[in-house]
Specification:
Helices cover 10% and strands 46% of the residues.
C-alpha cells in the first residue's frame, strides 16, 4: 500500500511544482537619439508587459539604474568607498550621470510615480487599473539620459561610450514577489528576459556595437539610423566609438549561415607609438 501511495503523491508534487514555474513577458520598442557632444541621449520607450503570474498587480517597480550615478549618496558610491575606490566620490558634477523626464502612461492613462524609500535608482509605477493574471498592459514613457564618466564600465570616455542598464526596466516579479534592486558594481543584476526592437540615431563619426547585428542602417552626412532586433535577452547594451574598425564575415553552423561582426581598434604604425 505504501508503494502504491508514494508514486501518485510524488506525481502530484512534481505537477504542482511545474505549474508554479512562470516568468513575466516583456517586449520593448525603444527609440534613442545619441548626442555624444553633450554626453547624453534622448529616448522614448514602449513596453508591453504581460502578467504570467497568478497574482493581480497594482504597481510595478522600475529600476532606473543611471540614477546610481546622480550623486555621492547612493549605494553604488558606498560600495566603491568600501573597496577603497574614491574616484567617483570626488568626481565633479560634469562626471555624474542620471536618468530623468519620466512620464509613465499605462494604456494611455498617466500613471503616478513614487520614489523607493531607500534606493535613489528605483521608482514605483502605480498602475491606474489592476493588472490581472494573464492580462497585459502597454507602458510608454520618454526619458533623458545623462552619461557619467566611465569609472567602472559604464559611461563616456574620449570619443568612446559604454552604455548598460540605461533604460527604465521593470524589476523581476517571481514567486517570491518583487525584486527592486539598486545598482552595484559587485553583486550582479537580476533581469527579466525580454524582446527588443531598438531604433537608434547617432552621428556618422561613431560606430555602434551591440549584442545584435543592425537589421537596417541608413546613412547620411549628418546622422546614421540603426535598427536592432533581439529576442529573449537579459538586457540591451551598446558601445559607441569613433576609432572602431569593423569586419564582417559569415559562419556555417548546423546548416545555418550566421553573420559575424568584429569590432576592434587598429594599432598605430610602429613608428607612431611614441606619439601616443
Amino acid at each position: 500500500m505504501k508503494k502504491l501511495l508514494t508514486l501518485p503523491v510524488l506525481f502530484i508534487v512534481l505537477q504542482t511544482h511545474a505549474q508554479s514555474v512562470w516568468k513575466q513577458s516583456l517586449h520593448y520598442d525603444i527609440h534613442i537619439t545619441f548626442h555624444p557632444a553633450e554626453k547624453s541621449a534622448d529616448a522614448s520607450m514602449k513596453l508591453r508587459y504581460l502578467n504570467h503570474s497568478p497574482d493581480t498587480l497594482t504597481y510595478i517597480w522600475f529600476n532606473v539604474w543611471p540614477n546610481a550615478f546622480r550623486n555621492d549618496r547612493t549605494q553604488y558610491t558606498d560600495q566603491l568607498l568600501e573597496n577603497g575606490d574614491t574616484r567617483f566620490y570626488f568626481s565633479n558634477k560634469e562626471q555624474k550621470g542620471y536618468l530623468n523626464r519620466l512620464d509613465f502612461r499605462v494604456n494611455g492613462s498617466l500613471a503616478r510615480i513614487e520614489d523607493h524609500p531607500q534606493f535613489m535608482d528605483v521608482v514605483k509605477c502605480i498602475l491606474p487599473k489592476p493588472l490581472l493574471p494573464g492580462d497585459s498592459i502597454t507602458i510608454v514613457s520618454s526619458f533623458h539620459l545623462r552619461l557619467p564618466f566611465n569609472f567602472n564600465g559604464y559611461g563616456y570616455g574620449v570619443h568612446h561610450v559604454e552604455v548598460r542598464n540605461w533604460y527604465p526596466e521593470p524589476a523581476v516579479y517571481d514567486s517570491k514577489g518583487w525584486h527592486p534592486m539598486t545598482f552595484l558594481v559587485q553583486g550582479g543584476a537580476y533581469h527579466e528576459a525580454a524582446d527588443y526592437e531598438v531604433d537608434m540615431e547617432a552621428p556618422p563619426t561613431y560606430k555602434i556595437a551591440t549584442g545584435a547585428l543592425a537589421d537596417t542602417i541608413s546613412r547620411s552626412a549628418v546622422i546614421n539610423h540603426y535598427h536592432f532586433s533581439i529576442k529573449n535577452a537579459n538586457s540591451f547594451s551598446w558601445i559607441a566609438d569613433t576609432k572602431f574598425t569593423v569586419k564582417t564575415d559569415t559562419l556555417q553552423l548546423d546548416g545555418r549561415q550566421i553573420t559575424i561582426q568584429y569590432f576592434y581598434f587598429t594599432p598605430p604604425p610602429f613608428n607612431d607609438f611614441n606619439k601616443i
